[in-house]
Amino acid sequence: MSAEGGPEEVLDGLSRQARKLVAKLAGPVRRVRLRSGETVLEVEWHHPARPAPAPRAEPDPVAAPQVGAAAPVTERPAVRAPVVGTFYRAPEPGAAPFVAVGDVVRPGQVVGIVEAMKLMNEVTAGQAGRVVELLVEDGKPVEYDQPLIALEPLTGRDA
What we know:
The chain has one helix spanning 7-24; strands at 31-36, 39-44, 78-80, 85-88, 104-105, 110-116, 119-124, 129-134, 141-142, 147-152. The protein is mainly beta and 159 residues long. Strand 1 and strand 2 form a beta hairpin.
C-alpha cells in the first residue's frame, strides 16, 4: 500500500485492509497492526478471560444429599456485548436483522449493534459458528460481556 494521499486517506485504506484481513482469518483475532509510511493502524480486542471454575468442595458427610440438583450446564460459545448499551439486531428500524437462527457466521462478521452514548458500536462474531439462539431481544439494554447470540461451532461439513 502506498503512503500517497493525506493521513486520513491512508488511514481509510489501512482500515479497509484490516477489515479484509480479519474477515479472511479463521479464528478469533486479538490484534491487528498495519503500517503505511508514517501512518499506523493498530486495533486490539480485549476478550475477557473466562473465569476459572470454582474449586470443588469436599462433600460434607453430615449434610443431607441434594435431591433434584441440576446437572451443570455446559456453556455454548456466544457473541458477547462489547460495551454497555442498547442492543439492536438490525442496522435500522424496519430493516432485516443482521443474523437469524440457523445462519452461519464468520469471525469478524457484524451480527448486531450496541448503542452507547449515541454511538453505534458494531457487534462482531469472534469465531465461526451457526446461530442457535438469540439471547437478547431487539432494543433491550445489555451489560458489558453479556452473551447476545449463542453459537454452535461448525463441524467439518459446515465449514
